[in-house]
Every structure is written in structure tokens, then in C-alpha cells.
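subagent[fold] <- orchestrator: predict structure for attached chain, return C-alpha cells only, no commentary.
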Amino acid sequence: MLTLDNVYKASHKLREVIRSTDLIYAPKIRSDCKVYLKTENLQVTGSFKVRGAYYKISQLSPEEKARGVVACSAGNHAQGVALAAQKNGIKAVICLPDAAPISKIEATRSYGAEICLVEGVYDDAHNKAEQLKEEMGYTFIHPFDDDDVIAGQGTIALELLDQLDKIDAVVVPIGGGGLISGIAFTLKNLKPEIKVYGVQAAGAPSMVQSVEHGKIECLENVSTIADGIQVKEPGVNTFTYVSKYVDGIVTVTDDEISSAILALIEQQKLIAEGAGATPVAAVMFDKIPDIKGKNVVCLVSGGNIDVTILSRVIKRGLLTSGRTANLCIELIDKPGQLKGVADLIAECGGNVISIHHERASEGSDVNGCYLRIVLETRNFEHIEQIRSALVSKGFKLID
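subagent[fold] -> orchestrator:
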């Protein structure tokens, strides 16, 4: 059973392995409220997950420890369980979706765990872990639907109360719901006036739909760059806690998540994975109600993003925040046209990254050509300024 005593007990136990992560003021995220970032992306293993995993394993009996543990994860819980098992000198088998980022798989392996890759998503890995539990007698360490795990995650709330005197709202990612369950339970029992909001990826809104419909629902498909919260079905316990203690749940798109990752890199010098950036995205894009002038904490839950995914996310974030633009201009193929375009863009302060010149196709002027340009820009207003300048000089833009 989840109790405040259990959360405090977990906090004491975790001192031997985790760090109390910094709470950073981030004024550039949004100007009309005070945004603070709880940097669990800088936690041991790069994620909050080690809190719940370590506390759960510390509570196992000697007999359970002797048999070893099995877990399933999209990556972060895997590393938490692997580290906890290593610290306790016990065997760990981790079932991961085969599409999990390579960096997370290798990091889990580095802690000495045995890896079992499973075709599909988190829920498929969960089914395999349950099968191994029955066959081998391992103790299953659930990534979110376990009261000891939830108590471990709730220790973040205790740190927040120590770090900031006045908190109006805390914004937390939701996958299966263990993190927000622990934080919301703890805060609502200690400071019930603090609002707690959850954020899910629009491509994996399992908790949103379940809470809205008043019953646990399983999604047929989930798809999002936020692999850490790509969960088809919330837990029985977490659904109950979220329904009781959470003030609201919103969703953010992959484009919004990409923009938030980019903002954290540029403005705060922090690397966040997709799941960890969802609270920042929700605040940036005005998804959280009634926070103007308030102190708002965004929980950056993890930083374990694969570098190949990061490069794609940055590119997408630049596009969706107006930092880059693609223009297609129809020209008459004669000397001086390219120079005229380049001069106009330079006068407007744009920076040309790449140019592709091609002859026009059927239906265009026989002397026509297309100029495809990728630009570095400041924002969407800057893009519109460049477009207007080109049109005013007689150049034809193709949308």
C-alpha cells in the first residue's frame, strides 16, 4: 500500500545511490510565468527510473534476491533495474522492445544485465517478462504499477518541496503513470493546493482516454518520438492514483516535443529525451491552464536520447519553430536570377544553407526553372519577411 511513510522511507534508502537533482530556473521557456526545470535527465542512469527500481529491489526478501529479477522497459527502467541489481549483487534479465534506442540497450548491458529484445513495443516486452517470470521464478520489477516503485518516484516531490518555497503547479510526463502517481500522491498529501498536471504524447494517449472514459483502456497502436512514454495501457494502481490526485492531463504533438528538445538544448544547455521534454512542450505551447504569473515546475524526466534520433529531432525542431525554412521559387532561367534571390535573402538577414537548381517540368515556361533553398532564419515572422521581400521584387514562390 502506498503511504507517505513509504515515500519517506524510500527517500532515506535512495540516498545511497541517487543524487538530488537540481531545480533550475528557466526564464526563456515562457515569459508570463516562472518556469523551473527538475533535472532528472541528470540523474544516475540519466533518468528518474532508478528511484523506483532501486527502492523496489531493496525491499525484496533474501529468497527473492537469490532467484534474480526480470523487468520490461523502453529503456530507462531497464537501466534503473540493471544498476539496482548490480548494486545488490543479484541477476537481472531485461526485456526491451527491439526498437528501443541502441544507446539505451547498450547502457543497460553495461550494468551487467542480460538483455532480451522483443519484437514490438513496451507492452510486448511486458508479456515476455511475465512469461520469463513464470518459467524461471524471477521476481518481476514492474516499471510503474507497483506501490514500492511509485513510492520511489514520489521522492522527487519531497525534493521539490525542499528546493522551492512556493510551487503553484508541477507538470509531469505520463507513460504508464508511475512517476506522476508518486509525485501527485505525495504533493496532494503534503501540499494539496499545488496543482499536478500530466502530459502524454498525442500518439500514445492511453491515460488521457482511460481517465476521460472512467475505465482502463488499451490502445491498438502507439507512435511517438517520446519512446519512454509509448505505453498502450496504464496500470491498475496508477489509473486509480491519477484519477484521484491529478488535476488534468494534456497531450503534445511530436513537433511540439521536438521544439521543446531544441529549446532545452539552446536555452538551458540540457539534453532531454522525448518523454522528458513533454512537460516543457506543454508549457511552451500553452497547454496547461491558469499558470500565468505562477511558479511552474517542469519535470525533465530523462536525457537518454539516441544521438541519431537527436539529430533528426533537432532538424524537425528547427523547422517547427521557424529556425529553418524551405523555399521553392520559380524563375526564368537567365543570368542574374540566382544572384537577385541571394542578395534579397542576405539583405533580410537570412542565411542560405543549401540550394538546388532544376529545370522546370511540363506545364511550366520552356525557359523556366525551380530554385529550392533551405534557409536559417530567426522565427516565423522572419520567414514571412523574406517571402514578402521576394514577392515584392517579382519572384514567384511555389507553396
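orchestrator: received. Logging for downstream: The mean pLDDT is 93. The radius of gyration is 24 Å.
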